[in-house]
Specification:
It is a single chain. A five-stranded mixed β-sheet has the order 2-1-5-3-4, with helices on one face. The protein is globular. A hairpin with a 2-residue loop joins strand 3 and strand 4. The chain has five helices and five strands, in the order ββαβββαααα. It has about 180 residues and is an alpha+beta fold. It starts with 14 loop residues before the first strand and ends with a helix. The chain is about 30% helix and about 15% strand.
């Protein structure tokens, strides 16, 4: 049997102390090694914007940003993120509580129906904008595009880059329009 911690739990060798900065706030957590980021966000931190859709990394409803890069939080073991910055849809507002431009565009374009996929779609779109600005090509990027130069985002680029985020309601045309509005 392991040694007792101050909080009464026992150390079993399957837990680690991890510090995550989530939406600008540092959190030190004692986590089971098998827990994924999505469960930590929802269950431990009460951030329920990221959704559990497929639990297999295939739908994108759980998309969050880790150190500015988009990830499927249902597949990422939280203990691997010690010292990382995590941003969820709740953390995209500016300091004054104003919505991120993509959040506003989704509202203005009515780029959602049931809304279940919307937080993942928005976080993924934030990642898409950063990736294109950094010059990361996609499958549909013109091969003549200079390496490392920003990639122009047209409708085809947006659709390709967001293809890992599924919308069961079929709001794809409005989602593409919302992203185009922010470019």
């Amino acid at each position: 049997m392991g040694a007792a911690h101050d909080d009464g739990t026992r150390a079993t060798g399957h837990h680690s102390e991890v510090t995550l900065t989530v939406n600008g706030t540092p959190h030190t957590l004692h986590l089971d090694h098998r827990r994924v980021l999505l469960d930590v966000l929802r269950e431990d931190l009460g951030l329920t914007g990221s959704k559990k859709g497929c639990d297999h990394g295939q739908c994108g409803a759980c998309t969050a940003l880790v150190d500015g890069r988009r990830v499927n939080s249902c597949l990422l073991l939280a203990v691997t993120l010690d010292g990382c910055e995590v941003t969820t849809v709740e953390g995209l507002t500016d300091g004054a509580g104003e919505p991120h431009p993509l959040q506003r565009a989704f509202l203005d374009r009515d780029a959602f129906q049931c809304g279940y996929c919307t937080p993942g779609q928005i976080c993924s779109a934030v990642g898409v904008l950063a990736e294109a600005e950094a010059g990361h090509p996609s499958h549909v990027t013109d091969p003549a595009t200079a390496p490392g130069r920003p990639v122009a985002l047209d409708a085809a680029e947006i659709r390709e880059r967001l293809s890992g985020n599924l919308c069961r309601c079929g709001a794809y045309p409005r989602i593409v329009e919302a992203v185009e509005d922010v470019i």
